[in-house]
Amino acid sequence: MRVSQITVFDIDRALSEIPVSRTYIYTRQVWHNAFVKACRYGIAVQNPLDLCEHVRYTKKRGKALTIAEQEAFFKRLECSRAKWLMLFYIYTGVRRTEALTLEWQDVDESENLILIKGTKTADSYRHILLTDDVKAILDGQRKQTERERGSRYESKRPERVFDYSPCYISQAFKKLCPAHKLHDLRHTFITRCAESGVNVTVCQQLVGHSTPQLTLGIYTHVMDDFKRAEALKFCINPRFK
């Protein structure tokens, strides 16, 4: 349809065919911005999105793996080609794309730092620590890559640490951990930080959150559970417990 001919009824009908989800929100935003530009250029008289009912979408909160789920996940990883990448996610809390765009030149072993070239927020571009655990993970991936290069497999991007496609990794994770999303490994890292007593501001900087409130939301939830478990230990007469 020509932009000038699209009415609010056309928009309403099209939106009604999309389940309320992130896709719905993104679609609405794209269309709204397109009509803003169309009105600016005189192609459309009014933005029909301004007249459509706005449906609120509440983003589902991530769910960290429990300790039992984490142990079971680690066992299943032993037979997975994506083992080292999955471990990298859970030991660093980086986003999916941040790990997949990581290059060997970003790993500074002399300073024990890794450059994460995040693009989601201003704080996404950051350095994280190259701990002994993470160093072992990268060594494992390097050896695996060398073995694969000795076979028929040839890396399309040899400078990349983890040469996988985003879709492959998401599908591989779903087979390994059907009850969770890949992003939950990031949530698990933040949760383990809270449980280990890592300062919330330090954790915020490690994961590249734009505000402390995003990290604090997870910390508060974890600490509430911890306080509840501790409070249940109360006994009016500990000597007879």
Q: What is the tally of beta strands?
A: 3
Estimate the helix proportion, in percent.
40-55%
Compressed to H and E, one letter per element, the order equals: HHHHHEEEHHHHH
Which structural category fits the helices and strands?
A: mainly alpha
What is the annotated CATH architecture of the largest domain? Answer: Orthogonal Bundle
- Number of helices, where a helix is a run of at least 4 consecutive DSSP H or I residues: 10
CATH fold name of the largest domain: hpI Integrase, Chain A
Strand count, sense and barrel status of the largest sheet are:
3 strands, antiparallel
Distance between the termini: 76 Å
Give the uncertain stretches in residue-range form: none
Mind telling me the CATH superfamily name of the largest domain?
Intergrase catalytic core
Share of β-strand residues = under 5%
When the domains are counted, the total is 2
Q: What is the topology, as strand order, of the major beta sheet?
A: 1-2-3
Which shape, going by the Cα principal axes? Answer: globular
Radius of gyration: 23 Å
Query: Averaging pLDDT over every residue, what do you get?
Result: 87
In CATH, what is the class of the largest domain? Mainly Alpha
